[in-house]
Amino acid sequence: MKFGSSILVAGIALFNAVRGDAVPWERLNKNDSMLLVLDLQVGLYQVARDWDATLYRENILAHAELGKLFNLPVVMTTSAETGPNGPLPKEILEMYPDAPLIKRQGEVDAWDNAKFREAIKATGKKQIIIAGITTDVCTAFLALSLRAEGYSVFANIEASGTYSELVRDTANSRMQQAGVQLVSMFSIVCDLMRDWRNTPGAKEVLPYLDRYLPVYGFIARGHAAAIDNGTLIDGEAGLI
């Protein structure tokens, strides 16, 4: 019985050692990161049914603007955009008129496209922030391919979308088991920024959050309004 228990304990330890999500925490480094805009196309947008449509539009624009906020190299790619998938939103294209845009004609996994691989390698970065439509195909296939090539992958869970919550959760679990880090937009911003006193810091980041994460932006607005008014009403003084 003791022998069987030892085998079980050893098996659990081995399992935990090889689990993708058991790797030490790796922080995003803005000097070694790049942003990937993956198949966030106007036609495919209709497939993202796991998000409120209005919120999701803001999410994909927030993802794209991370490159401008932190001066990251940006690579964009589309899948069969002359068909029903359509182009990238004009707002994203206008953000990066000079960034590489790889228009794949058939490859489902973007890593299968030689020009795309060259564009990624040309950045010289090892940390890749990714989001795409759909989560289970475009995002997951590429994220797994990048992990196999030794890249660190940070999947922005708020900017990928698919046709059901079950499919989304299954895809996220699959990626996580391969060591892909599942992160929120706010997490990405704070990790790249590191310190509100940095540049980019509060001056640059708060307007971005006010635009794309108003629950935080309005904290800043409330504080600014209180300082500007400079008064307390009855009962407030005892709360601070």
From TrEMBL:
Record's keyword annotation contains Signal: yes
Signal peptide region: 1-22
GO molecular function list: hydrolase activity
Alphabetized UniProt keyword annotations: Hydrolase, Signal
InterPro entries: Hydrolase_YcaC-like, Isochorismatase-like_dom, Isochorismatase-like_sf
Pfam families assigned: Isochorismatase
Stretches assigned to the Isochorismatase-like domain: 33-184
Family the UniProt entry places it in: Belongs to the isochorismatase family.
Name the UniProt record assigns to this protein: Isochorismatase hydrolase
Organism in which the protein naturally occurs: Bimuria novae-zelandiae CBS 107.79
Phylogenetic lineage: Eukaryota, Fungi, Dikarya, Ascomycota, Pezizomycotina
